[in-house]
Amino acid sequence: MAAKLLLQATDMLAAAANTLTPQAQAAGWKLLFDGRSTAGWHTYGKKSVTAGSWKIKEGCLVLPQGNGRPNGTGGDLVTNAMFTNFEFQFEWRVGPVGNSGVEYLFTEGEKRTTLFYPGDTGDSPMGFEYQVLDDAPHASNAANRLAASIYSLVTPTRKMLRPVGEFNQGRIVVDGNHVEHWLNGRKVAECELGSPELQRIIAGSKYKYYPGVGVKRATAIALQDHGAEVAYRNLKLRVLPPTTGSAPTAAAPPPPANTPAAAPSSPMTARKIPMQAADWSVWCWSKADNRWIEHPLDKMTVQIQGGVLSASNTTNSNWPRAILLYRGTLLDGDFIVSADYRGQLESFDLQSADGGNQRLSCLNPPQDNQWHTILLDRKQGQYSARIEEAPVQVQNSKASAGMKGYFCFKLRPGETVEVRGLVVQVGR
Question: The whole model's pTM is what?
Answer without folding.
Answer: 0.56
